[in-house]
């Protein structure tokens, strides 16, 4: 029966109307009873936080959807301390002990599960699978990320580091005279590298100045859309409206399907190819037997590499350059260190940039950039198991969402002196006295424990190699258009970073 016919039958119309009228008060009564339970009887009722947040999920959801969760959460930590009740069933922490309790392995070798609402188990990849599958898959993949494997792959990486320098020099000599969005160029580089190392084929981003098949833009659309789905799961009525809205705008689903199809084709092509190249797939397949990874797991995990391995590293590089530009004395010190350490450009190799003690100020700059602009600023939620958990010395009941909020931890005056000042000197052995009390153990940009970033070693190779080349080859100035680059950032698990306009010149000394 068509909708118009339904409304034309008086008895059916009346029935619908009375059901609807009866439903609304019932819905509100349930919501209010639930809120009262959350505030006065819920097992988390003694944890500090605003009453509105204890009662309803909505404020936390809105904060996530608006991309302001990082600063809203920090404001709450500043007011309530190291643990805050963000939502009826959610606790946020900002201490180093909480890192260990939430993300570390327990004495019985178990771990807190990843929160199923945040990590959708519908796909199978390293990031979302359960503990048993994760242990099996991680063991296989770890070979590809060892320092030895990465050093063997240095010709692939170095090719792109050099191409970045060449392309940036062309921009200086071109019509824009060196005015460029450096954040985009870092994205092109890290995307080309991870594409080549994963799939054995160049993506050509540095050459074409585009990220193929909307991988970059799609990442954010997909992450933002995940927030909408979580919202819809919590508020059914709003959820239905959002689903209808989504149906009327199928472009996002289409783009996602195109991206999935494209990456699958690339992965299939790599699997079909015989090669003696040392890329990730070579290492993974070398150790893959009947207890190894299924085809689905391999495809899913390669997709994770493409996103996790490009956006994060490019973000940290952009943040480091921005803070150095805002602090010219730090920039000069770093430039001096690099130019003295490497008499010629050819001296900058993957091995030399990692040799210990050679670039101590660069290490300090990287740590301070991770603190001031962590690429994963928000909370990666875990859920307490059936026995609950002890976190930061206090019992947390079963089924609670828990996590450390990186932005809140790194910008808290309870962890760092002058937390909003960019000062790499705090990480040096002769740090000024005021930094002696800094809680350095709280800085965990790659998290810790069994689920910590597998690409940490690769990320450091890229960060040191690219930053060294930037300091060695160029003089950099901030363009006036980007003075307020960090004035009001938004994050959707990763930063939604605006263009970072700079002016590059050839090295002058
Ligand atoms: C500055 C750069 C990077 C940062 C800050 C970073 C941060 C992180 C964090 C916080 C996690 C934990 C995610 C979670 O628990 O949900 C993670 C996991 C992961 N990262 Fe990175 N990452 C970086 C670079 C890379 C690179 C270059 C790769 C290369 C492919 C990579 C691949 C992965 C993978 C595969 C995982 C999942 C590991 C697992 O579950 O066992 N990351 N990363």
Strand content: 5-15%
Radius of gyration computed on alpha carbons: 25 Å
Overall form: globular
Q: For this structure, what is the CATH homologous superfamily?
A: Cytochrome P450
End-to-end separation in angstroms reads 81 Å
Number of helices, counting only DSSP H or I runs of 4 residues or more: 22
Question: Class, according to the CATH hierarchy?
Answer: Mainly Alpha
Structural class label: alpha+beta
Helix content: 40-55%
Largest sheet: 5 strands, mixed
Q: Under the CATH scheme, which architecture would be assigned? A: Orthogonal Bundle
Keywords:
509 residues; alpha+beta; Cytochrome p450; five-stranded mixed sheet; three-stranded antiparallel sheet; 22 helices; 12 strands; 55% helix; 8% strand; binds protoporphyrin IX containing FE
Briefly say what this structure is.
The chain has helices at about 5-10, 10-40, 50-55, 60-65, 70-80, 95-105, 130-140, 145-150, 155-175, 180-200, 205-210, 215-235, 235-250, 250-270, 280-285, 295-310, 310-325, 330-340, 350-355, 360-370, 405-410, 455-475, and strands at about 85, 90-95, 115, 180, 380-385, 390, 395, 400-405, 475-480, 490, 495, 500-505. With about 500 residues, the chain is α+β, with helices and mostly antiparallel strands. The protein has a single domain (about 20-505), classed as Cytochrome P450 (Cytochrome p450, Orthogonal Bundle), CATH 1.10.630.10.
